[in-house]
Design a protein that fits this description.
By secondary structure, the protein is an alpha/beta fold. 35% of the residues lie in helices and 16% in strands. The structure holds pyridoxal-5'-phosphate (PLP).
Length: 386
Amino acid sequence: MKKNIATELINAGREQARISVETINPPIHRASTVLFGSYADMLQANRGEFKGIAYGTEGLAAQRAFEETMRELEGAEDCIAFQSGINAIAMSLMAFTEAGDHVLVCDNVYGPTRNFCNRVLSKYGVETEYFPSTCGTDIGKWIKDNTKVVFVESPGSNTFEIQDIPAIVNACEGRDIVTMMDNTWATPLYFSPLEHGVDVSIHSVSKYISGHSDILLGTAAANSRCWERLREFCGTLELFAPQEDCYQALRGLRTLPVRLRQHEQAALQIARGLQELECVAEVIHPALETHPEHALWKRDFNGSSGLFAFVLDEKYEESDHAPFMDSLELFGMGYSWGGFKSLITGGRFKRSNSFRYEGRTIFRVNVGMEDSADLLDDLKQGLSKI
Ligand SMILES: *Cc1c(COP(=O)(O)O)cnc(C)c1O
């Protein structure tokens, strides 16, 4: 039947769009609607029994390819991608809690995670308490009858305290508690939460995994005990991640081992160089022997990434800091980390419990891909300005 032009335009080229070729990287689908091949398939989807993908929110090729790669890397039952790291954290916490529950979170947790617990979980009748950042076996003292989640971040991404994960997992065993870990600092390569008995491993993919400071994405991977509940919750909310970003994240993941090794070595060189300087009171890096939980890091981690911090001698005042920060040439001042460009942040932190760096300004360095000698020289010239 001869069609009119408007109809021709809607349907032209569809055959060619279905060509199937094998490329190294996954295709990026732009789709809400996914067409069914038959009415029988549609009826199955109506009943929630269709085995294929029935709608764009269920995750298209690039998302599925990225999630599958992460699943394998994490040794998980399965993994789901979210539109950001904080989104992965918030949704995981919501999936495993309900009104009347109690959640334990480490005190050095990423700030927005704390905000989410205090401002959102609380609205739904879930109470959060913060346990000391160097907790281990003593977590037992904090656990209540209604504790449903223990959330750890080790090392914390600003003050780098390390929790004794095996001891915490051990204390939670046999109870109706889900353990979750924000493993962004170590990436799946340098620490394996699930292998250490943690139930849900969470990453801000925006950092090392994507590695180029150009996307926001997160993941949560769960073991067989917890996957179904996470899947059900995220499926009901129809959460999904942008296809372009999943594609970029997967591309980043391919080179993660090489990049991370470079970040690690350069960061250690710079950390050791800073230790030599008189104006630096302490370099806070888990792989340095001087780090208070160095032994835990050595026992549990396979390596260290390129993010660490330092504090200056107490004789320097707040007003001395700006000349240092403002004179840096190679370090950008900005949040986030894990990309090729070196970054620095400065600030003080508040905790619920007393902590090591109370009232001290923490300078946090993200060592990028520049030459490490150049980076150390830049920090030295900056510090000479104070
Ligand atoms: C950045 C970060 C997050 C949040 O990730 P986004 O993708 O930026 O939302 C969570 N945890 C840690 C430790 C982070 O550094």
